[in-house]
Specification:
By secondary structure, this protein is an all-alpha fold. It has a domain of 81 residues: Arc Repressor Mutant, subunit A (Orthogonal Bundle). It contains five helices and two strands, in the order H-H-H-E-E-H-H. A two-stranded antiparallel ribbon has the order 1-2. A hairpin with a 7-residue loop joins strand 1 and strand 2. Helix 1 crosses helix 4 and helix 2 crosses helix 3. The chain is elongated and about 55 Å long.
């Protein structure tokens, strides 16, 4: 995976620790199939250079991903994306659950009925997919 393979597309926010944002980026790429099970990933130094982050931050992200079993590193071999089906299945569920939780927290005080909320989500989701397919993505209000 080189820098042209999505490594330079991370825009770090000022709220969350950078290493957690790197982990989330990996999870998103795994969930969308842009990183495949067993695929070799850049070394910690290569990742740090590509992302323009401190090597210690890259090391921390990789260590955490190893603990979460997202990546596997054996000896001096390059790190690879896990092939553990259970871990791979849980990644997408975790990301969707996190996004839904953030949405619920943001609208909790509005007392929106579930049916109305689902209609809004469906409409926005379909509009987003349509604009993505036509290449006319717009930022949400």
């Amino acid at each position: 995976m080189g820098t042209s393979d999505g490594w330079t597309e991370i825009v770090f926010n000022g709220r969350d620790p950078v290493y957690l944002q790197v982990i989330r980026h990996f999870k998103e790429r795994i969930a969308t199939g842009r990183l495949l099970p067993g695929q070799t990933i850049p070394s910690r130094r290569e990742a740090a250079a590509a992302l323009k982050i401190n090597p210690n931050t890259a090391q921390r992200a990789y260590k955490e991903m190893e603990e979460q079993r997202l990546i596997v590193t054996e000896g001096n071999s390059p790190s690879r994306i896990t092939q553990d089906a259970e871990v791979l299945r849980s990644i997408r569920s975790e990301l969707v659950g996190s996004a839904v939780g953030a949405l619920i927290a943001a609208i909790r005080n509005l007392d929106v009925p579930v049916e109305e909320l689902l209609a809004h989500v469906r409409r926005e989701y379909e509009a987003s997919r349509a604009s993505k397919e036509t290449g006319t993505e717009e930022e949400a209000p």
